[in-house]
Specification:
This protein is an alpha+beta fold and 230 residues long. It starts with a strand and ends in a 15-residue tail after the last strand. It is globular. α1 packs across α2. Strands 1, 2, 3, 4, 5, 8, 9, 10 and 11 form a 9-stranded mixed sheet that branches. The protein has 4 helices and 13 strands. It is 20% helix and 39% strand.
Amino acid sequence: MFFAHLTVTDTFYFERMDANPTLESRVVYRGDLAEAMRGVIAKQGPEALFKQLAGPYLQLYPEAHTTAAMTVESSKDDDVLTLVNYFVVPGFFSPSDGIARTAQLVPFAVTDTLGFPAAESRHTPLGFQFPGIVRHTDIVDFPEDVFPKKEAAQRFEGGDVHVSLRQVAEHTRRMVEIFAELSINVDQVDPDDWPTFSKKIQELRPRLYRTVRIPAVTNLDAPENPADTK
């Protein structure tokens, strides 16, 4: 039975609505993957892992910068390694168009895991070094109400015998939370199964890129759609 070997929680929080948000990124490795990451730290130092972890955020948010050195929380008893980074993220929201501001969220732990080559065929099996479950949660926490009301959660499930994806997107009056869980259910994909598998991945991948939309001016008396998490 496979288990969760990678869990990422990204929390964007604002001290004020007119301030740049702070991002707390918590990356939790378990099992063999935790041991592999400990090996990287031992041989190359924590800076090597920091560059690897920070890269996707800096690509999506080019103005982001760190506020502290990466924290390494290690627990040999339960075979868990946790890495924590903090960023300030200028430009998180797009400039207002007078109606709304938007921000992009990407569950990098899942998108990177699904980063397979888009070839139409293969002659050799595709092996998974760490089959199992990858989870990524994005949370945007506002200091005041920005949506008129709490909305029912939007849910999605899809996949095939090789991989399966589950998503839940929901929000309260002042918080957005988008959860993605990818399960790699096999050790490898055989060449005969590759065309079907590759097509399924191409169908799932676009669902992972989400947009958060808030009113340009916080005014709960105005009729405004809440978060566009499509």
